[in-house]
Design a protein that fits this description.
6% helix, five-stranded antiparallel β-sheet, mainly beta, 43% strand, single chain, 175 residues, 15 strands
Length: 175
């Protein structure tokens, strides 16, 4: 979703900071916003959220599941504002000794954001994954996994009732 210029102007004074603020994502109603904030070179990346109430944006706050041991970045909010996809260097349960960039998701409940859960091996690989976006039931993301067509390729995986199908690189001129 591309931010409208008027909306971007509203956010400047209420949400933006002197740090690196990037990957803004809004729900369809433009009432919930998520974005990443980091130091130089994406160090200590964190996800922030803000809500618009009575036409004004509230102050952005760090999302509740933040763990200072890890970097969370590249947030993507689904259009209903209930599911957040993002990238984190948290170790996967299947590889607790290795930290690389994988795609995770969290769901918004009545008491706030739930605990993040990693997507399965159909999506995550030993290589880094970046920039997840879910459009019409298809997850798009970049990955530098083995078997790609270039260094950082765009992949897609269709959403199923139980997870995602095996990710495949986009065809044609993209990779």
């Amino acid at each position: 979703m591309i931010l409208h210029l008027a909306l971007a102007a509203q956010l400047l004074g209420h949400v933006s900071s002197p740090m690196n603020d990037y990957n803004y994502s809004l729900d369809r109603a433009e009432r919930r916003l998520v974005f990443a904030r980091s130091e130089a070179e994406f160090r200590n990346a964190r996800i922030f959220t803000a809500e618009r109430r009575r036409g004004r944006w509230e102050r952005a706050t760090m999302i509740g599941f933040t763990d200072p041991r890890f970097s969370d970045t590249d947030p993507w909010l689904t259009s209903d504002g209930r599911t957040l996809y993002f990238v984190s260097d948290r170790p996967l349960p299947s590889r607790p000794d290795k930290r690389d960039l994988n795609i995770w998701r969290a769901t918004l409940g009545k008491t706030g954001w739930g605990a993040p859960e990693p997507l399965g091996p159909e999506v995550n690989s030993p290589g880094p994954e970046l920039g997840p976006e879910l459009h019409d039931g298809v997850l798009y993301f970049s990955s530098a996994r083995k078997g790609g067509r270039g260094g950082l390729d765009i992949y897609m995986a269709r959403q199923l009732a139980t997870g995602f199908e095996q990710a495949a690189p986009l065809e044609g001129p993209f990779n």
